[in-house]
Amino acid sequence: MVAELLDRAVAAQYASWFRALADPSRVQIVEYLARAGRPMSVGEIVTAVGLAQSTVSQHLKILADVRFVLVDQVGTARHYRINNACISCFPSAADVVMARPAPAPIGGC
């Protein structure tokens, strides 16, 4: 007998995370912010990834929509930082999709 399907709402959440990382530039941005370990301006991220400011801003919006990155307002500027709580949930998504036991969900995702 096959086990029950993953809850539809949970599957939709995981799918949104996978979609957000379906672009190599977004994967690089997430990895860069995670390594930096501090909030960064769009300009700093643009310099690091070598893309146009508008492109980086669009990627950051997608990543912020799924909470991989958080936005801090600093005066009139926005600084982006990795959401460690959400990033730590992501391996759980891959584990569940691959029918492996997943750790308990962490808040903030």
Model regions low in confidence, pLDDT < 50 over at least 5 residues: none
For the secondary structure, the number of strands is 3
The biggest sheet amounts to:
3 strands, antiparallel
**Could you state the order of secondary-structure elements as H and E?**
HHEHHEEH
Structure, briefly:
The protein is an alpha+beta fold and 109 residues long. The chain contains five helices and three strands; from the N terminus they run ααβααββα.
Descriptive account of the structure:
- With 109 residues, this protein is an alpha+beta fold.
- 56% of the residues lie in helices and 13% in strands.
- The chain has five helices and three strands, in the order ααβααββα.
- A three-stranded antiparallel β-sheet has the order 1-3-2.
Question: What is the topological layout?
Answer:
Layout lengths: L7 H13 L3 H13 L3 E2 H8 L3 H13 L3 E6 L2 E6 L1 H14 L12
Antiparallel strand pairs: 1-3, 2-3
Which terms would index this structure?
5 helices; alpha+beta; 109 residues; 3-stranded antiparallel sheet; elongated
